[in-house]
Amino acid sequence: MAIVIVSGTGTEIGKTVVTAAVAATSMAAGLSVAVLKPAQTGVGAGEPGDAAEVARLAGDGVTAVELARYPEPLAPATAARRSGLPAVRPADIAEAAAKLSAVHDVVLVEGAGGLLVRFDEEGATLADAARLLHAGVLLVAPAGLGTLNSVALTAEALAARDLACLGLVIGSWPEAPDLAARCNLADLPGAADAPLLGAIPAGAGSLEPPLFRAAAGEWLAPQLGGTWDAAAFAGRFSPSGD
Question: Could you tell me which CATH number the domain at 2-234 has?
Fold first, then answer.
């Protein structure tokens, strides 16, 4: 039974696609998977949210659960206040994840934005839910310039709360990586104080689901059910002079 919190250093960096890839590799290994989206923002009634997108990419066998939906694309606490709808609290997230874990091998809890984005007016965050669940955090980050600082800050926030960073996945690896991205392959594990566990190719989320599922294992390290090799990948893109 495993509950994993999928968080990021910011928004629009590939958390949903990473979550889908982990779900796909887990299902390929014969495990049952649930994905929990505590607060979906910026999506209207009847429109597919992030949890549904994970299920679409990873396969119909994924159990997709959403606890709350707010129409405006804002932080959950702000979106809840403006909509007049109840906020999602850490205890709600922990209870839902625990129930899913009782009947699934893997539960992936996908956050909104970064680790410390507020979910309610009391300032509760995804980190508080992780503490209640005693769950590790899989960190998703961008590839390029500026990512080292945001990764280091998130790693410090995790350590300050005695939360384990399971590893780091690059949410969108460019087809033609620049010098910063290539250097970051060597520097990101140090910034995160955790291993680099994968790199998702840019545009992977636009693949047809069968192709996505077939390729997912190539993007993730064995710890996440794949075959991706961090050292070989870094060596392939190593800048001259290193």
Answer: 3.40.50.300
What are phi and psi for residue 31, nearest 5 degrees? -95, 150
Contact 174, 229 (CB under 8 A): no
Residues near 53 by beta carbon (within 8 Å), at least 6 away in sequence: 16, 20, 205
pTM of the full structure: 0.95
pLDDT tens-digit profile, the chain (242 residues): 599 999 999 999 999 999 999 999 999 999 999 999 999 999 988 899 999 999 999 998 999 999 999 999 999 999 999 999 999 999 999 999 999 999 999 999 999 989 999 999 999 999 999 999 999 999 999 999 999 999 999 999 999 999 999 999 999 999 999 999 999 999 999 999 999 999 999 999 999 999 999 999 999 999 999 999 999 999 999 887 66
Has 37 been annotated as catalytic?
A: yes
d(CA 198, CA 110): 17
Torsion angle (degrees, nearest 10) of CA 213, 108, 158, 43? 90
Amino acid at 51: A
The residue type of 81 is R
- Return the domain boundaries, the chain: 2-234
Angle between helix 179-192 and helix 230-237 axes, rounded to 10 deg: 150
The amino acid sitting at 119 is: F
Q: Which residue among the candidates 15, 37, 182, 213 is catalytic per the annotation?
A: 37
